[in-house]
Amino acid sequence: MTMSSTAARHPRAEPKPPPRLHGQRAWSRRSRGPRSGALWRGLVLAVFAACGTRVDQASSEEGARRLLVVGWDGASFRMLDRLLAEGRLPSVGALLERGVQARFESTLIPISAGAWTSAVTGKGPGETGVYSFFEPVPDSYDVRLTSSLSVRAAPLWRILTQRGRRSVVFGVPLTWPPEPIAGTLVAGMLSPFDAAYAWPPEFTDELRARGFVPDLDEWTEVRPVDWNDLERQLRIKREVVGELLAADDWAFAMVVFKSLDVVSHLGYGVDFASHVGPLYERLDEILGQLVASVGPETDVLLISDHGFRLYDRGFNLHAWLLARGFSVASPSAARLAVDERAPFGKRARQILLQLRGELDWSRTVAFAGETEGNCGGIRLNVRGREPAGIVAPDEVAALITRLETELAGVVDADGAPLVSRVLRGAELYPGPHDRVVPDLLFELADGCQAFSDVEQARVFGAYELPFPEHEREGILIAAGPSFVHVRERGDARIADLAPTVLHLLGESVPADMTGAVLLPLLTGKRDVSRRVEAPLPRPAGGVPADPAPRNDARDALERRLRRTGYGD
After folding, report:
1. Where in 460-557 does DSSP place strands (E)?
2. What is the pairing mode between strands 99-105 and 440-444?
3. Dmax over Cα atoms in the chain, in whole Å?
4. DSSP character for 429?
5. 315 and 256, same structural domain?
6. How far apart are CA 28 and CA 314, in angstroms?
7. Is it the case that residue 150 has pLDDT exceeding 50?
8. 488 lies in some domain
9. 236: in domain
10. Integer Cα distance of 196 and 543 in angstroms
């Protein structure tokens, strides 16, 4: 979407060119409430009981207070501070006047799928099984889109349903297909248009009749999105959420607005602040309406899954691995095309397949994983784990040490270190899902974007125009009876959300949640109750997933892959 300073409020969405390293092309990765509430509540609780799960009654009076979480996907203090200083975000300013704020550290890599999943489960990607929008396909180097079925940890609404408390959940990424809960759930990003994307299932028909579209990313498959489209969807969403908040006896409500992230990604080559400023203002207006509707007795949190910033230079991870001999290109590999007009999921998968499809796996010891913002990951081609692995298990430690040393030695054009931090995936994100998390994770110096591109050999360079992309620092702003009022900006991690929500609602926190209750932000002195609980699996009886694989690349691409021997 082009939201220039001369046409800020009525733009026309136009794809923007990718960032460029000087002299070469660099790749751009773009990257009314339900009826019969009591009946559905009884059905959901019966489902949990049938699964052998204990259903607690609503908790004590101390935990009867309600909690509203509003998510602005991609919101950054870089923009908030500027707009607040200009007096353009009165609703955010009102929260700050009576509340507290913190830098909200996202997952590494900072991406919506892994970050929002971590937020609502209180766990890291090694425990949730969700690191990015893709997960490995067993016995291949292929990947597939993640969904709610990929999440191996219980989200807040499942825990609260098990304890007899109701939730309103709207637009959280990776919630399709929706599961049965006590309350209402409308799935978010990557929800298909033609499937049931809400719980109860018939609520989908009502939303569709009102013109609601569950995912702007996939809307680009139909046509470009302009400001009128965005405004219409925001209006519908505000109206529906307002009705749910007014009609339902909920304890926990969470609504995520994804449009800010989508618009920010489409801001290449324009004045970024002018491009996204009007949308921040509109979201601020909606925030004020939602806060007013729930009343001053309700605790409110405004959060983002990651921030956004402009990058003026880039580091091509794939080219670096080739140059250092960790990855080896196959001379016979066919160059796979990437459809720049394809929807997000298909295009991103094509890029990953393109990267992996050109490698000679008989000589490749390490290859590029997902990148986002200034963060990236490297995966090892381990024998017995990868289908054509050549690194013996007893050689893994030495190879990781070598990669760490060489990454630490990468410098920019001025001789300054380019890699600011290198981490081992299994140590940062321990858990049973070791194949989901890369073996090595790294962060680059300020202002340098990590990306991978098969079409250029240059490792590092400056961009012709600054490129908008994610950063790890998101936002947390909270106000209400449970929160202190402190002007200084603190620090928190995204996995801290779930345990903090449970504590605020008077609930015990599962002992296996790795996030912490943000006690310094709270007025209450009640100790955190942690208890060991049996795993809470996804209940049966939800909306079934579409049996057809929505994320498969085009048949022609698959045939070309097979001809190269990749993915067999």
Report:
1. 460-471, 473-479, 489-493, 509-510, 530-531
2. unpaired
3. 69
4. S
5. no
6. 11
7. yes
8. yes
9. yes
10. 7
Q: Does residue 111 contact residue 30 with C-beta atoms inside 8 Å?
A: no
Helix ranges, 248-303 (H)? 259-265, 272-294
pTM of the complete model:
0.86
336 and 223 within one domain: no
| Terminal Cα distance for the chain, rounded | 39
Whole-number CA gyration radius for the chain: 23
Q: Count CB atoms within 10 A of the CB of residue 167.
A: 23
Tell me the per-residue pLDDT of 435-454, one tens digit each, with 9 for 90 and over: 899 999 999 999 999 999 88
- Whether 47 is in a domain gets the answer no
H-type helices in 312-409, by residue range?
317-323, 344-357, 396-408
Find tokens 């690349």 and name the residue: 553
218-256 pLDDT, tens digit per residue, is: 555 556 678 888 999 999 999 999 999 998 789 999 999
Together in a domain, 126 and 246? yes
Whether residue 16 is contained in a domain is answered as no
Given a contact cutoff of 8 angstroms between Cβ atoms, the answer to whether 141 and 567 are in contact is: yes
SS3 206: helix
Phi/psi of residue 228, nearest 5 degrees: -60, -40
DSSP 177-196: SPPP-SEEEE--TT--TTS-
426, 519: one domain: no
Contacts of 546 (CB under 8 A, 6+ apart): 192, 195
| Range of the structural domain that residue 115 is part of | 63-310+470-527
